[in-house]
Every structure is written in structure tokens, then in C-alpha cells.
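Checklist before submission:
- one chain only
- standard amino acids only
- sequence pasted in full

Submission:
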Amino acid sequence: MKEDAGEFAGFFEGVAATDDVDLEGDRFSEEVLKSNAAKLVGRPVLMFHGRDKIWGSAAVGEIVEAAYKSGRGLWIRAGIYRAFENVWKMVKNGFLKALSIGGVVKRISFHEGFREIEDAEITEVSLTTKAVNPGARIYMMFGKSVCELQGPKAVVSGHEAVVKNESTVLETPFFRSYWMRRCSQRIKNDLGDAGRHEL
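Returned file contents:
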């Protein structure tokens, strides 16, 4: 990666906006997303459009790459500053998984069932728990290791649920106690009756 990784706690990739009609009935034109892609590099990443009670309008990160990808939308790669390690943890844990864009709308047209934003300047991308545009979300994170968010497997027992990647070792209190019981039973079975009397 060409950016200075020392400034950031970690990075994420995602789609900040698509040209689909969102839950509020607005739709960005493809031209708006294309024209803003090149201008987004260096723009801030905020928490809830700067209205968060804890972080306020502070930039918690910065967009380091952006591009319009046909059929997908406005793709970005952004870094979270080291000073906001707690924000990075929320991104890694999947609590902050959605993205939302903020800016100035300059021209809008009205159609049956939706409004089309024909000209706008996107000034920031925000982290949020739920986006107005369901397609705007984080797809991948980069820290010390790469973690893809698509298709995690959930291993569920009666006592707990653990999100598990293929490379992750299943290590939970329930699994540990279960495995110890299994190993103990296996030793007893291997020893047979004679071994049990000796114990």
C-alpha cells in the first residue's frame, strides 16, 4: 500500500454510495458518483456525519483511494487514525459496518417514486451502524491481517455463538470444557477396565 501505514491503526474498503434508490427515496446519478470519485482522496471519515456525542465533528480517518466501479458504485479505501483506536476496534468487530456520504446537493430532479441527485459535492464519508443506502457498507478490513466480511461462518452452541473464519481456531470456554471431557473419556476408553481400576 502506497500510504504511510504508521499514521493509521487499520484500513477498510467498501462502497460509500450506489446509484440505487435509497430508503429515503433519493438516488445519486452515475455521473455524480463518477465526478466525485477523484475528489474524495484526502477527504475525512467521520462518525455519524459529525453528530456523534463522543467524537463530534472530529475526523477519525481519511480516504486514501476512491474510484467509481460500474455496477457496484463509489468504492473507497480509508484509514482510521491511530488516535482513534477504539473506533478501529468497532470497525473490526463489525459494529460500524455501514457507510454514508455527506455533502452539498446542487441540483435535483423529481421522478415518480424517487428524487434523482444530478449534481452534488461529496465532502465526507461517515461510519454508521445502519446506512440509508443498504448497498453502502464495508466489505474488507486491513490490519495486521486481512479480514473479509463476506460470508463469515457462525458456530453456534446452546451456550454461545462465535464468528469463525476458516483460519480462526475455535477457542471458547464451552469448547474447551467439551474437548477436555472428550479427551478424558477417550483416555478412559483406551485404558479399559484394568486401567480404570489402577486409577
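Reviewer check: Confidence is low (pLDDT under 50) at residues 1-5, 144-167, 194-199.
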